[in-house]
Amino acid sequence: MNTTQSAYEYCKAIIDKHSKTFSKAFALLPKKQKQAVWAIYAFCRQVDDIVDEGQNPSKELKEFEQEFHYFLAGHLPSDDPMWLALQDVFQRFNMDTVPFQEMIDGQRLDIDSHIVQTEDELMSYCYLVASTVGLMLLPVIAPGKEEKLREGAIHLGKGMQLTNILRDIGEDMERNRVYIPEEVMVKYDYGYDELYNQTINSSFIQLWEDLAHKAQKHYELALETIHEYPLYSRTPVKGAAYLYKAILPAIRENNYQVFSERNYVSDRQKKEILANMNMIKA
């Protein structure tokens, strides 16, 4: 028989395994908020895993969506501890259900293949799969400030997702996904043949930097609202932003090698960033 506490521990193991950056940043929250972050992350991770690793992702995602609607009707859909933890979150906080559904809708776009044509399409995708996470978290980490912080949370999600995309170009191609918009490739005279041949030339660097600049702008806009967060969540949110932002210079230092290597920020660098970020101008 699962208890709420053991359900939260189950969710904590998921975030510890899959996102050391988020785990490290949000470890600074008070206990109830921190546990809620674990549960929300576990929900998002399950949706992501269905699409990336499921045997029949279309069918499995539809079943998960039905479970979510059953959950919203006041039931526990299964004995998965994630639902028990999430139930406690919905009882403790004034949760908005819309971004949870939007996350499912966004992940559905990745079933089969996903080739992005325009920047508008890319930013819509970034909202659905990443900005929604920030909107899920706002009632937990900034209760009563949801509307005031909404745009900043959306910007932070977009900055983070663009960073993921710029880091994971090679991995995404293996899943028949190309998130670099075709119109950006055309702008810098870089073709799909060059992309699939993993060509890193001046055109590739220019288009990469174009999207990196946009990511940086989203981080800047997000951090403009950081003072609106309660004191207990200000440092965790700022920490998450700074830890993610640091991936971009790590890729530059690795000569833009995003096809065959996964770029990351070391634990030592993460500690330095968290220690120094309050002295750094946002």
From TrEMBL:
Q: Could you cite one Gene Ontology molecular function of this protein?
A: geranylgeranyl diphosphate synthase activity
Q: Which Gene3D superfamilies match?
A: Farnesyl Diphosphate Synthase
- Record's keyword annotation contains Zinc: no
- One Pfam match, given by its short name, reads SQS_PSY
Q: Is Transferase among this UniProt entry's keywords?
A: yes
Q: Which InterPro entries match?
A: Isoprenoid_synthase_dom_sf (IPR008949), Squ/phyt_synthse (IPR002060), Squalene/phytoene_synthase_CS (IPR019845), Trans_IPPS_bact-type (IPR044843), Trans_IPPS_HH (IPR033904)
Q: Which UniProt keywords apply?
A: Carotenoid biosynthesis, Transferase
Give one GO biological process term: carotenoid biosynthetic process
Highest taxon, organism lineage: Bacteria
Q: What is this protein called?
A: Phytoene synthase
Question: Whose protein is this, by species?
Answer: Pontibacillus yanchengensis Y32
Lineage, opening ranks: Bacteria, Bacillati, Bacillota, Bacilli, Bacillales
